Amino acid sequence: MNGLGNDFLVWDARDEPLRLDADVIAKLGDRETGIGFDQMITVERSPSGGDAFMRIHNCDGTQVDACGNATRCVGRLLIEESGKDFATIETNAGLLHAFGSKTPRTITVDMGKPRLEWDQIPLAEEFADTRAIELQIGPIDEPILHTPAAVSMGNPHGIFWVDDIEAYDLSKVGPLLEHHPVFPESANISLAHVFAPNEIRVKVWERGVGLTEACGTAACAVAVAAARDSKAGRSSTIHLPGGPLQIEWRESDDHVLMTGPTEVEFEGEIDLETLQWSKTGPGDEVSVAGATE
Questions:
Q1: Which catalytic residues are annotated (predicted)?
Q2: Domains of the chain
């Protein structure tokens, strides 16, 4: 599945538990020799009584707590399966609620409240104001990037406000910033540019993944950071390489709502001994090359 090109291998493990080693996940996630994906999602039974528990691994095998686009994709599957117009999804970051819409395949997820205090994000040192923390890369007197906003949406984000998101090679600076000591759990790194009222263009380096077509939690984090710094209102459109997401930071309860499309690319089977795979069913309207027919 994918949400705006942010793609996932989704397993249904509610009846039969599935645990794969990190090296197996990395092999499956390799876009040259495996299926290729940004994250692997394992849908399991929810210990807390939700419709499902969602376990998230990056393509390098590391486990993470949150993924907004994956939550929308899993939410769609659960909603279609149950016939209801909502689903409750348990994650390591807490319970999330997904809602259907009048637009086919479009799902809204309540991502909960953003975490804005330095020790909630977390950061390695105390900052009184996380709207602009002391961090720069490049020469001291002429830094390439500096003073990002920091937000957690269940995972840490550093957001750099720039005039042109294409003016920087995020493939080079992203890994350095992802692992900067100020982020003890590493971080997702975004370049963001407000180009019109409540319209923000964003490019994301996702921790454990790299450059990605879309990142739902990054879109939420950018929207929150923009509203906190009066760069945008509490409702904005985040334009990612894969397409736009609608983000609302609801004033009544501070919850962040994310709305966007989902897509089933295909269904298939994998032999876990050989890691050979094949398509067994079609997707929505997408033709995907690379499978063994």
A1: 67, 215
A2: 2-110+263-282 (3.10.310.10), 136-258 (3.10.310.10)
